From TrEMBL:
InterPro entries: Bulb-type_lectin_dom, Bulb-type_lectin_dom_sf, Kinase-like_dom_sf, Pan_app, Prot_kinase_dom, Protein_kinase_ATP_BS, S_locus_glycoprot_dom, Ser/Thr_kinase_AS
Catalytic activity from the UniProt record: L-threonyl-[protein] + ATP = O-phospho-L-threonyl-[protein] + ADP + H(+); L-seryl-[protein] + ATP = O-phospho-L-seryl-[protein] + ADP + H(+)
GO cellular component term of the entry, any: plasma membrane
Identification of the protein by name: Receptor-like serine/threonine-protein kinase
Family per similarity comment: Belongs to the protein kinase superfamily. Ser/Thr protein kinase family.
UniProt GO BP: recognition of pollen
Compartment(s): Cell membrane
Listed Pfam families: B_lectin (PF01453), PAN_2 (PF08276), Pkinase (PF00069), S_locus_glycop (PF00954)
């Protein structure tokens, strides 16, 4: 280029254009201000500071977000309560020794609000750990102010949530209002102001609804967050190192990451849960590792006033009948904090001169968790309790049960709808305007005409039913909740007097049957049932309410005297053991199918352990209890039967009959059984899915081999995982998937149940979301491997220890 001035002008324009996008540095000085699309970037590029608008919002905020992930995710916001609309006239700058934000009218709307001895030398630096630091000069080491001391909703590594012992004030981690509004929400995490080493989550700064439990210095976990222990047992990408500090001025916890390979964060989510998340760039999303409280409805008043929370389906929140959301916009953003308001005002509110409550009525709402802040009334009947509520126009509801009469004179908060039968459920009567109820008088003429016109039709239908019943005896079960209540003779007829046996085991025998609509069922005759009629029906209703694609559906039951039967969907491909342990030349299950069976089973168990209102422990996971539908989709069978059988189930669960066994060590030690016992059994089953044979088998030379120890050697020593695969598959399987499933299995069968992952974490491992380290070899497996020839499992019904043939495949499990 011949003209040097033209060349210089072009370079100057390029530089000015670049300045509009980014300073290209990590510092704001006294002669620089940040506005528009300008940003500063930390030295390593990990974090960016600038203006941002969350979601589809037209409000802008000064914030810090991650610089190396594809989704803009703020970790800190300055002007949470005071957004700006015009970012080009708004400025973030150094003024009088402070970092301040001014709006388009040059009015200061946010400031670090400190005193500085030399205001002209103050600089703001964005560090690579996400900390925005104000220093008295670029060479000063002591910060005048730093954003880590003023957290928003994200607890970054290196930050602290402290208790100031002099002022008795805690630093708060406060949720956003919703995904598009970073204004402080209702939920906050803080260190116990009383001085205990415990974190609380509070609603509206007052109501505590969750505690981390005390800090255990030896285990280095909070007692109520057992997932933290996995940070030390597994090589998960979000490995944390927590530390506690306390002196005469303050107490605080802080943490650091063991690795910089991935991005992890702890946030106080607007759902009211503290969440541990890690970023997966391959999926371009944040992956949830754990959240506390574990269930959404445990968050206090999550659905706001006159809202009802449920764990049955989404959305979690709904308004009570006669109410509607105060803000549809916020509800669409999963912000239910505004709650609901009446669709129709009460009559006593419309016309105070009327006798209070004469035209108001009450809607019965059964099986709910009652709200707090009720007033007890000394009355002797439900009618008197209702009248007591009607005496006050601001009385919103009443309840009358074994605890007497209670009325609510406030908005109803923390109302929860239970699913199925539960002993915790109560009935509340919600006050509504009379117009919310249908008037029966206006419909009398219509009803009478409909009845008269329908009599002939009813008579015809009765004749048709009687004639058909004579031709063919018809099963006509009653409906109880979501289940059908069959008669014993009906099931006897459907199964042809229980003639076609599908299988059997400790819980009872299973028979094939056909209903009049030609649908095929599996009928299980339960044994050792000593429960009364009411308790049995209650327990069965609980099992019937559990629905998941990887759980066998319970269709109905029969309870007539000593005859207790369960009716399930029929699974045409039988149980998993029939497809794994082949004795002929049948085609073996392909590896892809095996992997999907392992993953589907884990998902079903995760639902039982973590998604049901009460954790359901299966207690008998093994291939015989994993059924396969027509598409070879796995279905966990017999869940809930351990509770149904009662104390006798410990006897039937010892039915090993020649297999190595699936019982966790804690069964033998006598300690309380938790869901981790299922994890152990599932891990033992994973070994068999890989190998296609029982874990303990006798070879041609008469020696007994124990397959889990072979897995342990392969993944800890020689690394030859293909040698573990079922030889009938001819090594046709991805090595990474074999390695992943074997590592997961070894972690599942750890001796100490606290070392085992939850089933939810197993799902994440098998999905490839989480990577796990090489597990240690459990000592119990080593002992079993060294003493295999001396260990035989048998039941009380076994005639001798030599009874070692596996139990038959069953359709509703053995």
């Amino acid at each position: 280029m011949k003209n040097p001035w033209l060349k210089l002008s072009i370079l100057l324009l390029m530089w000015l254009s670049l300045c509009k996008l980014s300073f290209g540095a990590d510092t704001i000085t006294a002669n620089k201000s940040l506005s528009g699309n300008q940003t500063i970037v930390s030295s390593g590029g990990n974090f960016v500071l600038g203006f941002f608008a969350p979601g589809s919002s037209s409000n802008y905020y000064i914030g810090i977000w991650y610089g190396k992930i594809s989704e803009q995710t703020p970790v800190w916001v300055a002007n949470r309560d005071t957004p700006v609309r015009d970012i080009h006239s708004s400025k973030l700058k150094i003024s009088d020794g402070n970092l301040v934000l001014t709006n388009g009218s040059q009015v200061e709307i946010w400031s670090t609000n400190i005193s500085s001895s030399n205001s002209s030398s103050v600089v703001a630096v964005l560090e690579d750990a996400g900390n925005l630091v104000l220093r008295d000069g670029p060479n000063s080491s002591a910060p005048l102010w730093q954003s880590l001391d003023h957290p928003a909703h994200t607890w970054l590594p290196g930050g602290k949530l402290s208790l100031n012992k002099r002022t008795n004030r805690s630093q708060l981690l406060t949720s956003w209002k919703n995904s598009e509004d970073p204004a402080p929400g209702l939920f906050s995490l803080e260190l116990d102001p009383a001085g205990a080493n415990t974190y609380f989550i509070r609603w509206n700064g007052t109501r505590q609804y969750w505690s981390s439990g005390p800090w255990d210095e030896q285990l280095r976990i909070f007692r109520n967050v057992p997932e933290m222990r996995l940070n030390y047992l597994y090589n998960f990408s979000f490995l944390y190192n927590f530390s506690f500090h306390s002196d005469e001025n303050e107490s605080y916890f802080t943490y650091s990451l063991h690795t910089n390979q991935t991005t992890s964060r702890l946030i106080m989510h607007y759902s009211g849960q503290i969440q541990d998340q890690s970023w997966l760039e391959s999926n371009r999303q944040w992956n949830l590792f754990w959240s506390m409280p574990g269930q959404q409805c445990q968050v206090y008043a999550f659905c706001g006033s006159f809202g009802s929370c449920n764990e049955i389906d989404l959305p979690f929140c709904s308004c009570l009948r006669g109410f509607h959301p105060k803000s549809e916009t916020n509800w669409n953003l999963s912000d239910f904090s505004d709650g609901c308001e009446r669709t129709t005002r009460l009559q006593c509110e419309e016309d105070p001169n009327l006798v209070p409550g004469k035209t108001d009525k009450f809607l019965e709402s059964p099986n709910v968790k009652l709200p707090e802040r009720a007033q007890a009334m000394s009355v002797g009947s439900m009618l008197e309790c209702e009248s007591a509520c009607l005496e006050y126009c601001n009385c919103t509801a009443y309840a009358y049960d074994r605890d007497g009469c209670r009325i609510w004179m406030t908005e109803l908060l923390d109302l929860q709808q239970y699913s199925g039968d539960t002993s915790n459920g109560r009935t509340i009567y919600i006050r509504l305007a009379a117009s919310e109820f249908r008037s029966s008088s206006n419909n009398n003429g219509i009803i009478i005409g409909a009845v008269a016109g329908g009599v002939g039709l009813v008579l015809c239908l009765m004749i048709f039913v009687i004639l058909r019943w004579r031709r063919r005896r018809m099963i006509n079960p009653k409906v109880e909740g979501s289940l059908l209540a069959f008669g014993y003779r009906d099931l006897q007829s459907a199964t042809k007097n229980f003639s076609e046996k599908l299988g059997g085991g400790g819980f009872g025998s299973v028979f094939k049957g056909t209903l009049p609509d030609l649908s095929i069922i599996a009928v299980k005759q339960l044994e050792s049932i000593s429960q009364g009629e009411k308790q049995f029906r209650s327990e069965v209703s609980t099992i019937g309410a559990v629905q998941h694609v990887n759980l066998v559906r319970l269709r109905g039951f029969c309870s007539e005297g000593m005859n207790k039967l369960l009716v399930y969907d029929y699974m045409p491909n039988g149980s998993l053991d029939a497809h794994l342990f082949l004795e002929d030349n049948s085609k073996p299950l392909a590896w892809k199918t095996r992997y999907q069976i392992a993953l589907g089973t884990a998902r079903g168990l995760t639902y039982l352990h973590e998604k049901c209102r009460d954790c359901i422990i299966h207690c008998d996971i093994k291939p015989e209890n994993i059924l396969l539908d027509a598409e070879l989709c796995p279905k966990v069978a017999d869940f809930g039967l351990a509770k149904l059988i009662g104390r006798e189930f410990s006897r039937v669960l010892t039915t090993m009959r020649g297999t190595r066994g699936y019982l966790a060590p804690e069964w033998i030690s006598g300690v309380a059984i938790t869901s981790k016992a299922d994890v152990y059994s599932y891990g033992m089953m994973l070994f068999e899915i890989v190998s296609g044979r029982r874990n303990s088998e006798q070879n041609e030379e008469g020696k007994v081999g124990f397959f889990p120890t072979s897995v342990a050697r392969a993944i800890t020593q020689d690394g030859d995982v293909l040698s573990l695969l079922d030889p009938r598959l001819n090594e046709d399987a991805p090595v990474d998937e074999i390695s992943r499933i074997c590592k997961a299995a070894c972690w599942c069968v750890q001796d100490d149940e606290t070392h085992r992952p939850s089933m939810g974490q197993v799902v994440q491992i098998l999905e490839g979301v989480l990577d796990v380290n090489v597990p240690p070899v459990p000592r119990s497996l080593q002992v079993l491997a060294n003493n295999t020839e001396h260990i035989i499992f048998f039941t009380e019904s076994s005639s001798s220890p030599s009874s070692q043939t596996p139990s038959n495949s069953s359709n509703a499990s053995s």
